Amino acid sequence: MSDSDCPLCAGKALDEALIRTEVWSDSLWRLTTVRIGEVAGFSYLEPRRHIRDITELDGEEAATFGTAIASASAAIKDATGADLVYAYIFGDAVPHLHVHLAPHRHDGSPLVNDMIKGARHQVRLPSGEEVWASDRYPLVSQDIMAAAIEDIRVQLNPGLVPDDEDAG
Ligand SMILES: [Zn+2]
Fold it and tell me: Degrees (nearest 5) of the Cα angle 145, 150, 154?
């Protein structure tokens, strides 16, 4: 994939195709929360600018990364009732820096080794889209996923009126 083909550089335009909802953004960063998956509230923090990976993080993004990841993680934790939030960066598949922010519960959570190394299979959704799913953990219901998205969005955007369009 060349940089000009980068799907994350498209920003909000590709959120539908990637089955995620933007819950917060500023001039440098965006936070999106997935609408399908094994854990409600699973989100991606990524710079708007095309920064290939963490080794190339520089400029204003480097200066603001700490506050962006802290506030995003705190909102995800509060919204989902998680004990903590895992943050991990891979970068093999999409060469545009994106931090996976995964709510984790000590009493049992899919986001342990099973999600990184465990068996997966493809699931075809009613919409026709296909997603990867864990063999061991079921996908969370759409209502629970949507509620987490809305809770994170409201926490990161003080004074925001709940928006039916984004919540749906
Ligand atoms: Zn990019």
Answer: 150
Calculate how far, in angstroms, residue 54's C-alpha sits from the geometric centre of ligand 1: 13
Ligand 1 center–CA 44 separation, angstroms: 14
Residue 49 Cα to ligand 1 middle (Å):
7
**Structural domain harbouring 95:** 3-108+139-158
Distance (Å, whole) CA 14 – CA 33: 13
- The amino acid at 130: E
The pLDDT of residue 5: 82
* Residue 154 domain-assigned (yes or no): yes
Residue-level pLDDT at 37: 86
- Ligand 1: centre distance to CA 68 (Å): 18
User: How far, in Å, from the CA of 83 to the mean position of ligand 1?
Assistant: 32
List, run by run, the mean pLDDT of 10-residue segments along the chain (168 residues).
79 90 97 92 96 95 98 97 92 90 81 64 81 83 93 90 55
In a domain, 7, yes or no: yes
Nearest Cα neighbor of 154 from 29, 33, 39 is: 33
Single pTM value for the model: 0.82
- For the chain, the domain total comes to 1
Question: Tell me, what's the pLDDT at 42?
Answer: 94
Q: What is the CATH number of the domain that holds 10?
A: 3.30.428.10
* Residue 167 within a domain: no
Whether 82 is covered by a domain: the verdict is: yes
